[in-house]
Design goal:
This protein has 214 residues and is α/β, with parallel strands linked by helices. The chain has two domains: 162 residues, P-loop containing nucleotide triphosphate hydrolases (Rossmann fold); 47 residues, no CATH class. Helix content is 50%, strand content 16%. The chain has nine helices and seven strands, in the order βαβαααβαβαββααβα. Strands 2-3-1-4-7 form a five-stranded parallel sheet. A hairpin with a 6-residue loop joins β5 and β6. α1 crosses α9, α2 crosses α3 and α4 runs parallel beside α5. The longest helix has 15 residues. The chain binds adenosine monophosphate. Adenosine monophosphate (AMP) binds next to α2 and α3.
């Protein structure tokens, strides 16, 4: 089991980078946010528990998301290679991940920190639209679909995420600073942290990530 971790504030471009890296590196994309949104849509017990936290832009409890991710990693077997997008988000989750990786003789290949100034983060989140069918993300101005409001990949009508409204965005950025930023030092201390400037255009960011991982 091998994991690459994408770390970055909401709007840093984790989903966009992940889409490109999956093709380039032949890894499986595991987005904790997509897993939770699917669980909410399907009305599973985990989804029912997560819904209230997500609507407010709060993190769901470590045990809830930790169990979903570790079950998925264990089920994938020893040859699984994943790109983790949105997990871990707290030091507690990083410890859970370390435990499961150690127990299965796996390794973390690198932790890529996507660095983006706040003003750009807010602009990206406010203009973001997503496909409810296949989860592909777009930006109304910077990364528009070919036909306005329609997913290029599957033809579904694009929507704004419930948590991409100004109040919830502010909350999610504050949660990132308080709960997730400590992971930067945590992984730097383990010599796993790779800082990448992610403020520019998606293809250029992708090239920087691939170069940094090699
Ligand atoms: P994302 O799509 O990564 O922005 O995640 C959307 C929402 O799902 C977050 O605002 C949290 O409410 C929840 N979430 C996703 N990943 C995690 C995680 N690793 N830990 C706790 N909550 C999470």
């Amino acid at each position: 089991m091998e994991a690459i971790i994408l770390l970055g504030a909401p709007g840093a471009g984790k989903g966009t980078a992940a889409e490109r890296l999956v093709r380039r590196l032949g890894v499986r994309h595991v987005s904790s946010g997509d897993l939770l949104r699917n669980a909410v849509k399907e009305g599973t017990p985990a989804g029912r528990e997560a819904d209230g936290y997500m609507k407010q832009g709060k993190l769901v409890p470590d045990e809830l998301i930790g169990r979903i991710i570790t079950d998925l990693l264990v089920a994938g077997g020893p040859n699984l290679r994943v790109l983790l997008d949105g997990f871990p988000r707290t030091v507690g989750q990083a410890e859970m991940l370390e435990q499961v990786i150690t127990a299965h003789h796996g390794r973390i290949r690198g932790v890529v920190l996507l660095n983006v100034p706040d003003a750009i983060l807010i602009d990206r989140l406010a203009g973001r639209v997503v496909c409810p069918g296949c989860a592909k993300g777009y930006h109304v101005r910077n990364m528009p679909p070919k036909v306005v409001g329609v997913c290029d990949a599957c033809g579904a009508r694009l929507v704004q995420r419930k948590d991409d409204n100004p109040d919830t965005i502010r909350n999610r950025l504050a949660v990132f600073r308080a709960d997730t930023e400590p992971l930067v030092d945590w992984y730097a201390a383990r010599n796993l942290l790779i800082r990448v400037d992610a403020s520019g255009e998606a293809d250029a960011v992708n090239e920087r990530i691939v170069a940094a991982l090699n």
